[in-house]
Structure formats: structure tokens, C-alpha cells
Amino acid sequence: IRREKATSNICTAQVLLAVMAGMYAVYHGPEGLQGIARRTHRYAAILAAGLTAGGVELTQGAFFDTLTARVPGKADTVVAAAREAGVNLHRVDADHVSMSCDETTGRAQLTAVWGAFGVTADIEALDAATEDTLPSGLLRSDAYMTHPVFHAHRSETSMLRYLRKLADRDYALDRGMIPLGSCTMKLNATTEMESVTWPEFGQMHPFAPVDQAQGYVTLITELEERLAEVTGYDKVSIQPNAGSQGELAGLLAVRAYHRANGDAQRTVCLIPSSAHGTNAASAVMAGMKVVVVKTA
User: Per-domain residue ranges for the chain?
Assistant: First the structure.
């Protein structure tokens, strides 16, 4: 969020996600993204064909990557069977189960899902007999990602050099202390960052059952308890994963505090004109009135 006199307009923890998405597009290009999308849909189409052939009713005719099956009264049984086979399905309600394919889906997962529904299918035969079901009216025909950068880096070496070139234009921890940012990663040691690449962290689905995420639960609980102990707070939440989200969480807590004390009229939030662009936006989202304070 750009503010004229702000000394910073980038929320590091959030822009990192944009950088990842952007570089993913740079590396794969339009043809690569199309290939990933078509493969994803192809697996969903074969999965759907196998379920339908096995007598399982699907609730939609057109789909891209996600299917919903109607299994009257058997949703819990199907989900449990899939989980036993190493696959998590989504229980919509007692009668419906949803499942999604992505670029990591393989044939073993399709077989496991069919088995959870009590279906046996021949993948090779279904692959040969199944047509894609994407509606022609939804297929994109115009040119996109036409900038040369989306067509220039297809090898690992080329991509690596391009990323290094961009990094050389930036100011980061390997050059000095980062001077600003509530959410900036000012000092994360390599040993701390290395663990992010572990599958136990990186491959955990956000909707996975809690009993499959006990490592995360322990890590979060212990960190919250230790931070509360050293700061003297009654409770600490590390749910906000960026400075902007932390602002909003804090302002919502402030607003709730005032309301709990009968001071609901206290809604003014003073924001310096040089403050980060998200500050004012967070205050507005929290239902407060922003009053800008001039700074030198």
C-alpha cells in the first residue's frame, strides 16, 4: 500500500509470497503453467471417470481440479478409509466428500481414493477413454505473460543467475542490518531457515487433521508460552504471520478492550504520516477512524 511520505511500503513477510509466485511464473512461463494446469485437470478427469464408473455420484458436471461426491450417510467411512491409505479427503457433511488434485497428484493417490470409495479401476484404460471436461467457453484464448522475462529463463543456471541479479539490487541481511520493518526478518540464522525446507514443515496441508500436525501444535504452543513468560503478558498469539496482520490483530484486541470497558466511542487511531502503508489500512479494517499526525 503506497503512502506518499512512508519510509517503507513493503511488508516483507507478505511480499515473499508474491516473489515466490512471480518467480514460479518466470521459471515455468505460460507454456509450463498450461502444462501443469492440464495435467492437474487430467488427473481430476480420470479420478472422476473412475468414481462414476464405480457407481459413485458426483455433484458437478464441469470441474477443473476439485470433485464432490455424494455418499449418503457414508462420508465418515470414506474419509477414514482414505486416511488409512495415506490420503486426506474433505468431509463436507455426512453425505458429501470433496477431493482435489494438483501437480503433486500421482496414480497411487488415484488408486487410494478409488479404494476408499470401494471402487476398483484401470488407470490406463480410463486414461485412454476419458476426455477432458473443461468447458470451451472457459478456456483462455488471448495472449498472457507476454513480457520477455516469462520466456527467458528455462534452465536452473539461467534462473539462478537472474535471481542473483535481482538480489544484488536489494539490501539484505548479507549486506548489513535491515533498518526497518516490524515484519522484516532481521536476523534469521541459516540453521533456522534450513528447517523450512523440511517436508514436515513445507508439505503440511493447512486443512490437515490436527492429530497429523502435533509437531506444529507443540512448536506454536511452546513458543507462545515462552514469549508470554519473558514479556510478562498473560497470553501471546503468533497467528499473525506478517507485520500487517499483527497490526490488525493488535488493533482488534485494542478495540475489544475498549468495548469491554464501556468505551466503545474510543475509535480514533493516530497514524504518523511516515508510517508504513498498511498501518492506516489496518486501522480502517478494525473499524477505527484514522487521524494522520504530521512528522518532520
Answer: 1-173, 243-293
Q: CA-based Rg of the chain, rounded to a whole angstrom?
A: 25
Q: What is the pTM of this model?
A: 0.80
Instruction: Place domain 1-173 in its CATH homologous superfamily.
Output: Aspartate Aminotransferase, domain 1 (3.90.1150.10)
- Cα distance between residue 177 and residue 184, in whole Å: 11
User: In the sheet where 57-58 sits, what is the strand order?
Assistant: 57-58, 66-70, 96-100, 90-93
Rounded Cα distance between 168 and 266, Å, is 47
Phi-psi region of 147 (alpha: psi -120 to 50; beta: other; left: phi over 0): beta
Q: Between 277-285 and 243-260, two packed helices, what is the crossing angle to 10 degrees?
A: 40
Q: Which residues make Cβ contacts (< 8 Å) with residue 94, sequence separation at least 6? A: 73, 75, 76
State the pLDDT at residue 200. 85
The DSSP code sequence of 238-285 is ----SHHHHHHHHHHHHHHHHHHTT-TT--EEEEETTS-HHHHHHHHH
Mean pLDDT per 10-residue section of the chain, whose length is 296 residues: 61 76 96 95 96 96 94 97 96 97 95 97 93 85 95 95 91 72 61 82 88 92 96 90 83 95 96 84 94 86
Alpha-carbon torsion 23, 176, 226, 261, what sign?
A: negative
* Residues whose CB is less than 8 angstroms from the CB of residue 155 and which lie 6 or more positions away in sequence, other chains included: none
Q: Are strands 289-293 and 268-272 parallel, antiparallel or unpaired?
A: parallel
CA quadruple 5, 8, 14, 15: dihedral sign: positive
Decide: 121 and 114 in contact? Cβ < 8 Å.
yes
Whether 237 and 224 have beta carbons less than 8 Å apart is answered as yes
Rounded to whole angstroms, what are the CA distances from 169 to 24, 54, 172, 174, 204? 20, 57, 10, 13, 33
